[in-house]
């Protein structure tokens, strides 16, 4: 009886469910198109708080930007560096469809790309060679320095200019 008198009581929850479903659907689609989903399947997350990891040696960089196979992830990524892995995760509101990723340093190659409007460092991955992750040279420099401070052996042979 109450629902018949006030349609807003049933309308609001339906709208919220549709919005949440749409958000999750769009993020899942972006994950599939960008290659994030494939990369996450090939390189599932490793717990950085596990007893085998030195928590002090994990360096995190929040609100980073990158381009996954041409799709931009602007200021919504967290990169974490430890001795063995480069970890990637999205910020919480963007997490649906984007499970965290841990890529061994030995499976990452880096090349510097110089173009008129689109310069940066391109990361490629052994298990998923078609997926490329482009980051700014500034972020690449931070990751290189963090990896060196953790005694990681990386494919970054030199610091980007």
Descriptive account of the structure:
With 161 residues, the chain is of the alpha+beta class. The protein has one domain: PH-domain like (Roll). The chain contains 4 helices and 7 strands, in the order H-H-H-E-E-E-E-E-E-E-H. It has a 7-stranded antiparallel beta sheet with strand order 4-3-2-1-7-6-5. The longest helix is centred in the N-terminal third of the chain and has 27 residues, at 8-34.
Stretches where pLDDT is under 50 for at least 5 consecutive residues are none
The largest beta-sheet arranges its strands as: 4-3-2-1-7-6-5
Helix content: 25-40%
CATH class: Mainly Beta
Mind describing the biggest β-sheet?
7 strands, antiparallel
The number of distinct β-strands equals 7
**Which term fits the overall shape?**
elongated
- The arrangement of helices and strands along the chain is HHHEEEEEEEH
What is the gist of this entry?
The protein is of the alpha+beta class and 161 residues long. The protein contains four helices and seven strands, in the order αααβββββββα.
Secondary structure topology:
Blueprint: H1 2-5, H2 8-34, H3 36-42, E1 59-68, E2 71-81, E3 85-90, E4 101-104, E5 108-113, E6 120-125, E7 132-135, H4 137-149
Antiparallel strand pairs: 1-2, 1-7, 2-3, 3-4, 5-6, 6-7
């Amino acid at each position: 009886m109450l629902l018949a008198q006030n349609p807003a009581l049933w309308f609001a929850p339906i709208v919220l469910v549709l919005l949440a479903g749409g958000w999750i659907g769009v993020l899942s689609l972006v994950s599939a198109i960008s290659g994030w989903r494939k990369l996450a399947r090939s390189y599932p997350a490793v717990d950085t708080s596990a007893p085998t990891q030195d928590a002090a040696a994990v360096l995190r960089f929040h609100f980073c930007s990158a381009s996954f196979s041409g799709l931009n992830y602007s200021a919504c990524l967290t990169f974490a560096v430890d001795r063995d892995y480069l970890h990637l995760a999205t910020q919480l509101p963007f997490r649906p469809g984007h499970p965290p990723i841990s890529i061994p340093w030995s499976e990452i190659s880096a090349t510097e790309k110089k173009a008129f409007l689109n310069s940066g460092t391109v990361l490629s991955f052994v298990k998923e060679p078609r997926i490329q992750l482009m980051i700014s040279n500034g972020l690449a420099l931070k990751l290189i320095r963090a990896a060196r401070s953790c005694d990681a052996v990386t494919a970054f042979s030199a610091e980007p200019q």
